[in-house]
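[Automated response] Your request has been received and processed.

Submitted sequence:
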Amino acid sequence: MGVHSFSLAGVLDLGELAALLAMAPLLIANNTGPVHIAAAVGTPIVDLYALTNPQHTPWGVPNRVLNHDVPCKYCYKSVCPEGHHHCLALVPPEAVVEAVWSLLTEMGRLRGGPCSHPQIEVGDASESGLTV
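Generated structure:
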């Protein structure tokens, strides 16, 4: 982790995590419990989604769902059956930055943004319930 960050893993209880997420301008996370807590408290989300079950994407808040299309998508497995996690590992960091910028711009917190990345589809899960 960088100089301006620190880990709170194992430090916060669920209530404290929810309070922290409620104060955050945006959450960047993979599809885990904190994504659902952030949605519950109204925090916008950039979700690195592992293409397991499309019903587990965020809803009810502004969001962007990122993934890399793979043949094994929608496997409904908790652990990658292929062992490579390409659906997440092949999402370039620039696409995450673009998604954050896009979401914050849409919400009126930023203006302008970086270029598009055609190999990654960025979408709002509430529009279709699924982003691939």
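Summary generated for your ticket: Residues 115-132 have pLDDT under 50 and may be disordered. The helical segments are 14-23, 33-40, 86-89, 93-106, 125-128.
If you did not submit this request, please reply to this message.
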